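Per your request, structure below.
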């Protein structure tokens, strides 16, 4: 996705989460550390991007957690989600026979279905109808709760996209056209 977006003309800033990739320390972060890191990266981005007023947050899968935290802490020009994290309780319902409340699993830190209510900027969500990690109906809840201008793209026959066909792989031209179409319609100042 980094390559796709960069080749399309976007400047791209990516980081490894604490405990992931080559980041240090190599231990998993607490929920509080994960959220603090997201806010810190968001604030730092404004100091290094060419035009902070055009900063777009793009989240894929787990990236929905820090992206929602960033958007609420310091609103971007737009927020784009691809097959992004919805909530811990939604995951427990869709991926197991358990049904546990949000605070039982994460003290509420990872509930993007509720957190999105704090972001009123342009929001574009994409998900495949075969995504079993974050099913359409859960992403729909996030979209429904987003108070600002929004669009929701459901792709037929598309999976989550980490180890199988995802949104960009369904067709790069359509993928890029949908992103630009959303930005032109709802966040033209980002372009």
């Amino acid at each position: 996705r980094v390559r796709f977006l960069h080749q399309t003309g976007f400047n791209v800033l990516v980081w490894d989460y604490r405990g992931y990739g080559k980041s240090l320390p190599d231990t998993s972060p607490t929920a509080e550390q994960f959220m603090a890191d997201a806010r810190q990266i968001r604030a730092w981005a404004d100091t290094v991007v060419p035009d902070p007023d055009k900063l777009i947050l793009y989240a894929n899968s787990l990236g929905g957690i820090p992206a929602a935290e960033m958007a609420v802490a310091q609103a971007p020009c737009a927020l784009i989600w691809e097959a992004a994290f919805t909530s811990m309780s939604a995951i427990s319902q869709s991926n197991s026979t358990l049904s546990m409340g949000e605070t039982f699993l994460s003290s509420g830190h990872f509930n993007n279905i509720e957190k999105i209510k704090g972001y009123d900027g342009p929001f574009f969500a994409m998900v495949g109808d075969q995504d079993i990690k974050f099913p359409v109906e859960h992403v729909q809840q996030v979209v429904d709760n987003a108070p600002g201008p929004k669009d929701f793209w459901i792709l037929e026959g598309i999976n989550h996209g980490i180890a199988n066909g995802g949104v960009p792989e369904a067709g790069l031209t359509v993928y890029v056209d949908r992103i630009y179409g959303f930005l032109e319609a709802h966040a033209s100042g980002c372009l």
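Helices lie at 2-8, 31-48, 64-73, 88-95, 102-106, 112-115, 136-145, 172-186.

Regards,
D.
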